[in-house]
Amino acid sequence: MTMKKTLLALLIAGAAQAALAAPAVPAAPQSVREVDRIVAVVNKNVITWQELQARVNEAIKQLEAQKVTPPARDVLAHQLLEQMITEEVQLQYAASGGLRIEDAAIDQAVANLAKQNKLSEAGLKAQLARDGISMDRLRGDIRRELTISRLRDSEVASRVSVSDSEVEQVLKSAQSANRTEYHLASVLVSVPERADAKQIDALSQKVHKALADLDAGQPFAKVSATYSDAPNALKGGDMGWRPATSLPVEFVQLLEKLKTGAHTDVIRTQQGFFIFQLVDKRSGGAPMLVEQYHVRHILIRTNEAVSEADAKARIEQVRDRILRGAKFADMAKLYSEDGSNAKGGDLGWVSPGDLVPEFEKAMVALPVGQLSQPVRSPFGWHLIEVEGKRNQDVSSDHEKMAVKQQIRARKMEQAYADWVRQLRDSAFVEEHLDDK
């Protein structure tokens, strides 16, 4: 996984933690002392007031850095508490399933973070220390992000597939002729899967209040931070660029009627209530040259009968045999637990986006003819060998490949949202933020 947190965000988090030591309101008399308390119970774990306040302070700093006026502190606290509950539910699920992040992965993420910010690791540590962030805290934040990312891949990514017929259906539609790309932002008010009429009505009132704020001229980013349940709420609800072929036809028709900067009315979906903003749009569809890789692999899967440690030990034994002279293709036929084993693990020529991120990252970095170290993906442990690289003009195939990626991304997004919502709805949660 590529480490997405910038150093600035981590420094902001440190400032937020330091801010706990200072009063967020006028100082109380010395005889009065703020005591930590429980603001939520999630199954057998708790979220404390101080943990929530750290997250609130961090969010305020992030919004101010984006020149967005933060919503009221109590409003932001309720938004962030729900995010923390959802996050905690996922972390508990990962722990119960034995999902663990290796220290080596944390080490690599720290090294990547330092490199991204043009610092040595010692320089990164010194910079963090000046802002009151310990290396242990940084590693904990990274471990949490990697855990949720790997959980998403293992629970959703490996189960999402796109058939050739789905791609062909899009290519034959009139929509495929539309090369427009849309930069979107959104406000999402989620609706629980088993919500009753009273809950749905309350959530409908909430999203319509968000719409009223937008109609009154409130900045979209502020409204998103105030009302949205989506993970991108504190980033102005930014969804990035989306090609027309990845969106429903009716939605594209709606976007074509919007002026840049305008927003839609409330849109009801299976996930909840949405409001979208058209941030910008552009023409796309330019041909591209793609670097392709001729790759083989050997896969040892993990499952209920094969532990993480056993699978890794087996793949290391296979690697040792190859290093001592055994042919990669022969070892793939004997040991690989993948459909490509009959072909000696040969996956043929693959393009960026064809394979899961962990596999692709290792493949791209691997010199031709060199055997990889064991690589972990949602499917298990791999050995990889790149037999060749080429720059291929894929103008004729590019549209098909792009459509396939877009369909998969849309399915992934929806499947993950549904899975997280079901996980959240099945958890035992008690909120005590408003308790007096």
From TrEMBL:
PROSITE patterns documented for this protein: PPIC_PPIASE_2
Subcellular location: Periplasm
Xref: InterPro entries: OMP_Chaperone_SurA, PPIase_dom_sf, PPIase_PpiC, PPIase_SurA, SurA_N, Trigger_fact/SurA_dom_sf
Residue ranges constituting the PpiC domain according to the UniProt record: 179-280, 290-388
SUPFAM superfamilies found in the cross-reference section: FKBP-like, Triger factor/SurA peptide-binding domain-like
Keyword Chaperone annotated: yes
GO cellular component, one term: outer membrane-bounded periplasmic space
Annotated signal peptide: 1-21
Domain of life: Bacteria
Catalytic activity: [protein]-peptidylproline (omega=180) = [protein]-peptidylproline (omega=0)
EC number, as in UniProt: 5.2.1.8
Any one Gene Ontology molecular-function term assigned to this protein's record: peptide binding
Cell division is among the record's keywords: no
Biological process per Gene Ontology, one example term: protein folding
Subcellular location, principal: periplasm
Pfam families per UniProt: Rotamase, Rotamase_3, SurA_N
Enzyme class of the recorded protein, top EC level: isomerase
This protein's UniProt keywords: Chaperone, Isomerase, Periplasm, Repeat, Rotamase, Signal
Described purpose of this protein according to its UniProt entry: Chaperone involved in the correct folding and assembly of outer membrane proteins. Recognizes specific patterns of aromatic residues and the orientation of their side chains, which are found more frequently in integral outer membrane proteins. May act in both early periplasmic and late outer membrane-associated steps of protein maturation.
Record comment regarding domains: The PPIase activity resides only in the second parvulin domain. The N-terminal region and the C-terminal tail are necessary and sufficient for the chaperone activity of SurA. The PPIase activity is dispensable for SurA to function as a chaperone. The N-terminal region and the C-terminal tail are also required for porin recognition.
Protein name, UniProt field: Chaperone SurA
Organism of derivation: Chromobacterium paludis
Lineage: Bacteria, Pseudomonadati, Pseudomonadota, Betaproteobacteria, Neisseriales
Gene: surA
